Amino acid sequence: MMDMLQTVDVGIVVLDREFKVKVWNGFMESHSGMLPSEVRDKSFLSLFPHIDPQWFAKKSRPVFELKTRAFMTWEQRPYLLKFPNYRPITGNEQFMYQNITLSPLTSANGKVEYLSMMIYDVTDIAAGKKQLEALQVLRSEEEEQTNRQR
Amino acid sequence: MYSVLVCDDSLVARKQVAKCLPQDWQVAVHFAKNGSEALNSLQQGKGQLLLLDLNMPVMDGYETLKAIKEQRLDTKTIVISGDIQPEAFERVTQLGAIDFIRKPVNPETLKQVLVSHQILAGDESGNTDTYELDPDIRDCYQEITNIAMGQAGDHLARIMNVFVRLPIPNVNLIEVSELHMMLSDIESHEQVTAVCQGFLGPGIRGEAICILSDSSFEDVAKILDIQEDVDDQVQLELLMDAASILIGTCLTGLAGQMDVNFSQGHPVVLGQHRAITDIIGMNRLKWRRTLAIELSYGLEGYNVQCDLILLFTEDSMITMNKKLSHLLEDF
């Protein structure tokens, strides 16, 4: 069963209330280049110094306190963790676009001691959407051109 | 004036059908005793809507439908017949009938069919009883939402130090057209941001829409304790966070009472991540009605106005009613 966690194409990280890393799956290992043994019980924020600790604390507070999920979408923040693109040879994008869900993990006593972070790779979707927007801009520019010539 | 042609060989049946037409519908009613009479009337433009019996002398319903097709007469045909074999239904729809009503006709069914084919405008003058929620079920949904809100309000009060004015939830079945109006309204108001999030549980599907007025933003930033300067992108992220908290706490409360777990999709900002016109433009939506629970939040001491709308698909209600049957017994 642990194989599932290792092979699934989604990043899974479990953090405790002090943001110490408890689980670090295969996806995270491959993309970050850090082994689970290297990161275990280290502070997540010290591993990724470009994350604003205050912002991250605020983002995760409702997860611990209200047991609700928190979301980050690529439209607002292209990525939380700067991973290289999945397709280094044929891909156009420089980095992996990410959608991230923070969910509470409730322990037997009903308290939330840990949160799970799921990291989805949405690079293809983001690239497609950006292309579509670029085309729309191009089209409206062309329309303006033809209108001017009339 | 819209004209309706009733075609049946029995005088009683003709009268009965004519009586079933909606009372407040201003129409000219014409009658025909068989298919060939009906065709004559149609050729004279009497009958934008044809209510047609199948078994008649001289020219029966099937032949009439064929002739209408051949002569390309401009009319919408609803077959009204006692013959309810599936085959009959199949045949008449192939011949171009838009719907089939079983005899004896009753006013509700007829009205429903007329509304569903946009022949009759939806409920402007009072709802038809058929669309009403059973009052017991409505009370039950209202009650569980109240409890969920109470829990959510309590959490928010303790964590965010805000006092939530608890609204009375408004529970209704709403039509596609009403949702369209609501969404167009959001679009025409530049001062609101709507965040939409799908949720999913066993047998229950729905979407939550959270509408925040942009004037709430400063106070939302205060509540979430944001000190740094914010650009538009961060502002949007804040609104999404606020929406996620409101949607999440309310859903958690509902899920707890129904003893299910909801999965939630990623939230999208309507009009930014997804153009509202796209949603409204889809005039062929796959559903007709949805259960809507509306809540208007206010926060004491803050200028935060927020509407939370939970939409459930119609088929979710079957599951929900089962889950809540222990409550329904008390009513």
Automatic annotation (TrEMBL), chain A:
All residue ranges annotated as the PAS domain in the record: 1-54
Pfam families attached to this UniProt entry: PAS_4
Signal peptide span: none
Name listed for the protein in its UniProt record: PAS domain-containing protein
Organism taxonomic ancestry: Bacteria, Pseudomonadati, Pseudomonadota, Gammaproteobacteria, Alteromonadales
Automatic annotation (TrEMBL), chain B:
Bilayer-spanning residue ranges: none
UniProt entry keywords in alphabetical sequence: Chemotaxis, Phosphoprotein
Keyword Phosphoprotein on entry: yes
Identification of the protein by name: Response regulator
GO biological processes: chemotaxis; phosphorelay signal transduction system
Modified residues (4-aspartylphosphate): D53
InterPro entries, per database record: Bact_response_regulator, CheC-like_sf, CheY-like_superfamily, Sig_transdc_resp-reg_receiver
UniProt entry tagged with the keyword Lipid metabolism: no
Highest taxon, organism lineage: Bacteria
Residue ranges of every copy of the Response regulatory domain listed in the record: 3-118
One Pfam family it belongs to: Response_reg
Entry-linked SMART domains: REC
